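Help: why these numbers?

___
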Amino acid sequence: MDVRRQADRLVDLGVPELAGTTAEELLGLADGLEGDGVLCVHPSLVPPSRLVPLLRHDGRPGFVVEDMTDLDDFAAIADLDVPDRPLYLLQGVDRGDDLLDWTPDAALPEVRGRGRTPLTISEGISWLLQEPDRLEANRCFMCLGSRRLTPRGMDARVPAIWISRGTGRDGRSRRNAPKVGWCWAGNHHTWLGIASASGRSPRPTG
């Protein structure tokens, strides 16, 4: 995907306003990025909770589940080389349909054994901002690259993105809307894959 076209889409979606910057300045942040890949918004530019409402499915905006008010506290797991810049590229993204019904705990070594890297929640959202059709019923995905550290260790929740059925606390008005929530790291889900990528650029230095 063309970098400039993706940057223009972020402008059209209103990302500059969320970042407290101008369209010109946001376009400038993409300067120097070359090659194929998804243009990702680093959480330092716009936290994931603020990007979620920009998601669309069936004409409905995305939302975060009510019991995940700490979404922005989820950070990249160890050994994940996320570029330290506001915008960067994510290559070779795959939804992980072949990992449907795998637990996140079991999937992480499998993903890494394939020479791939799990997506962070910001990367998953960024991907769907550019390619909203990648979110399909019964073919949604977890973002195993983001976890939350607590004083006792790793939070057992794993962020995920799927489509709301409009039941329970979601509310009927949110039926078919993109939904950012969580799943237990040790649980199986037949409708959630493990999204991954082949790499990120530019590579961090130092």
User: Anything to note?
Assistant: The chain is about 25% helix and 25% strand. The first strand starts at residue 38 and ends at 41. The two ends are 29 Å apart (CA to CA).
